[in-house]
Amino acid sequence: MGRVFLAIMLMLTGITAMAQQQQAVDAAEFDKDIQQPGVQVFDVRTAGEFSTGHLPHALQADYTKKEEFKDRVQYLDKKKPVYIYCLSGGRSAAAAKWMRENGFANVVELDGGINAWKRAGKQLEGVAEKKPQLSVADYNKAVQAKGYVLTDVGAAWCPPCKQMEPVLEKFFQKHPQVKKVAVDGGNDQDVMKSVEATKLPTFIFYKDGKEVARKQGVMELAELEKLAGL
């Protein structure tokens, strides 16, 4: 009896594991599912591919850049569903496998990727949103203000940047005298090079036009305040 029970349990475990490894749905199902609250949409293409059009509310990390991918994926919630895609399905399948093996409970792939999404006649966001870069001259002028200036180098599609949004909101509510300068990490490449910001998010404090502190990554409010001596 014990052996029969053990065999059944092993069979069920195997079926469950197989089901977890084969969670891929077509564009219609994917589109319907990502409209549910709490779903995280994850694009694992390159930043260049992402800028040509992406799914609604998508976060991005380049799976081919292992350090970037692992850094950004840690800011996704492992307990909430992650709907993942790439161009045709290869990279997202590999990324989904890694995520399942590293504690993500529910990872669903877009079968066929963006190519299948387009074939199904579905629209992408960000296709016609290309905007002029913030010039280095305009950036330098902005940070020359008297008093404190905080430069936020980030992007709406960057997972750790999203995590910092409520922290920044509290910071500027508490310190309204600090001027904010936003640098779009997906667009303002010239400024990023000029300030040597290589990762998102990067925060740079200026006082009376001179840089006094900087740090990359996610912080608590107290740490952000301490960074500038506020």
What does this structure look like?
With 230 residues, the chain is of the alpha/beta class. The protein has 2 domains: 20-119, Oxidized Rhodanese, domain 1 (3-Layer(aba) Sandwich); 136-228, 3-Layer(aba) Sandwich (Glutaredoxin). It contains 10 helices and 9 strands. The strands form 2 sheets. The chain has a 5-stranded parallel sheet. Helix 5 (90-101) links the parallel strand 4 (82-85) and strand 5 (107-110). The chain is elongated, with a radius of gyration of 21 Å.
What count of helical segments does DSSP give? 10
The rough form would be described as: elongated
Unreliable segments of 5+ consecutive residues: 4-21
Taking the sheet with the most strands, its summary is:
5 strands, parallel
Count of discrete structural domains = 2
Query: Care to count the β-strands?
Result: 9
The amount of helix comes to 40-55%
Structural class: alpha/beta
H/E series: HEHEHEHEHEHHEHEHEEH
Q: CATH topology of the largest domain, anyone?
A: Oxidized Rhodanese, domain 1
What's the average pLDDT? 89
Distance between the termini: 69 Å
Radius of gyration, whole Å: 21 Å
Domain Thioredoxin: 110-230
Keywords: Signal, Transferase
Domain Rhodanese: 35-126
InterPro entries: Rhodanese-like_dom, Rhodanese-like_dom_sf, Thioredoxin-like_sf, Thioredoxin_domain, Thiosulfate_ST/Rhodanese-like
